[in-house]
Amino acid sequence: MNSGYDRTLDAQDGTRIHYRVYEPTEGRAATFLFIHGLGSNWTRWKRLAMEPFFQRFRLILPDLRGHGDSITRQGIDADGFAADLEAVLKKEDVERPVVVGHCLGANIAVRVWERNPRTVQALVLIEPFITEDLHGAWKTLHGILGPVVWSVGLLVGALNRLGLRRSRFRRVDYSVYDDWVRPRLTNLFNVIRWMGPWLDLQCMPAASYLASYRFLFRYRPPWRKIDAPALALIARQGGVLSHEAGEHPLDRPGIQNVQIEASHFVLTDNREGVVRWIQAFIERLKGEGRWKN
User: Fold this and answer.
1) What is the Cα–Cα distance from 285 to 289, expressed in whole angstroms?
2) Architecture per CATH, 5-287
3) Can you tell me the mean pLDDT for 133-147?
């Protein structure tokens, strides 16, 4: 695979959306659209893009609005995210991609499908943020942080309107950072220190970060209505979803539901497993005659 190339487009509200494109090694191929999570950027998928399996496909890796090189403080909501991605697909002349998302990105992937189901060939949902089935610790954390996020958001918004805002942000290449940080995630303190919001807030506007966090709880994807071929990869240990109830909205016929050996940071913990499960999922769709290049 080549090293890829960068492209941009101007969204309807003037936000410049950045994305990376990797072309297949040979011939015409289906397209994968990879959507990163909260506080991240397109480089979170770079190592995955280098895997031999993915080199046979066209890959589009966007920076979500407010993240990476798509800096903005406006339009951070379900339709803002989805409209940007639809515009990217239209510019790249992509009709039926496989849409892959992690956490925030998984929820956005469902919104892309929900807005126009016929344009999505399949969904891969890695650690989706299902608010009605969150692990108890995550519910408690949100109970504490929710009011704080709302209050801080009001303050940040007021400061921005007064012209007080940052113009420079740290750029992190997560394809390098994730390999560096993995052996350091030995306890909760280090997870918060090296993978928590402190790093995220260095890389994007606070207003965008807070709005993206609120999005996770405001937008409720129609999980039970998904009728596209779908693979859900749920972390077995340290993920966001509770396994005590036995079932969650994606644990049903029609969706291949897999518990993968990893924490919530699946791409850091078990990239090989992610590739293996996606490859098996695509091969199954081919065998069922539900795959189109």
Assistant:
1) 6
2) 3-Layer(aba) Sandwich (3.40)
3) 69
Whether the CB-CB separation of 99 and 112 falls below 8 Å is answered with yes
Task: Name the token pair of 276.
Answer: 């293996």
- The SS3 of residue 115 is helix
- pLDDT(125) > 60: yes
What's the pTM? 0.93
Cα–Cα distance, 58 to 224 (Å, whole number): 29
Print the SS3 string covering 49-105. HCCHHHHHCEEEEECCCCCCCCCCCCCCCHHHHHHHHHHHHHHCCCCCCEEEEECHH
Residue-wise pLDDT tens digits, 205-221: 999 998 998 899 899 99
Instruction: Measure the CA–CA gap between 164 and 87, rounded to whole angstroms.
Output: 31
Residues shown for the chain: 293
